[in-house]
Predict the 3D structure of the following.
Amino acid sequence: MTAIELPQRPAPSNGSADGIVIDLKLDRLWYGDFFAVRDTHMPIERGSITAFIGPSGCGKSTALRCLNRMNDLVEGFRFEGHVRFQDQDIYHPRIDPVAVRRHIGMVFQQPNPFAMSVYKNVAFGLKLNGYKGDYAERVELALRRAALWDEVKDKLKQSGLSLSGGQQQRLCIARAIATEPAVLLMDEPCSALDPIATRKIEELMLELKERYTIAIVTHNLQQAQRVADKTGFMYVDTSQGGRTGYLVEYRPTRELFDDPREQATKDYIAGQFS
């Protein structure tokens, strides 16, 4: 069966006027018999940063990983709803998940550079995707965009594992953006970093949104307020005896924090539960 091609990467955008790049709609989602998420709809605007917040177990990371089919790797995963990238259903049976992840990159909670040189870390995705251009030029560009070039330009042959934690995370960001994805997903990208490294990553996010649409999961409410244009608050429904995450509200970040509509949002922002 011939695979369907995903749309080409859109031109860089400096705002949300160009519309929705990903439409996430999870009516019901399961891992085997576990009913994990319900009633979650988050249209993600191009050229913006979207944050997922909420208590542990509310489905934030599950929702984020639906955006590039990472949940396909979990046995028993299935859902009702849709995830559309530039109006294309990425869960269509003829869509290649590897192609999805080329367009929608991901950075994980723990920095995870490969046990190879800084240069080879960034070039890895290029090689995997059969890039035919100038590798050295593209590696340098990715490292510059990740605000790491000046710190590693004389260390390109050294192991990526030799870098500090913050540098390793920026190396992983460089690796993710080297293939020029349209969207960059970040799952708790600063949770393992100190405050100085966290600030660098946050500043980098704000720079990168000029070229990439970004979606992040964070437990740090101040971080969401500092970087996100829109924020979705998810909570946990225990009324049926289980723990099912759902979206409470999804609004421009300042509105959600300054004037939350739902009591659960008010309580979470006030620190009455975590």
Notes: Residues 186 and 216 are 5 Å apart (CA to CA). Residues 20-269 form a domain with the Rossmann fold fold (CATH 3.40.50.300). The radius of gyration is 19 Å.
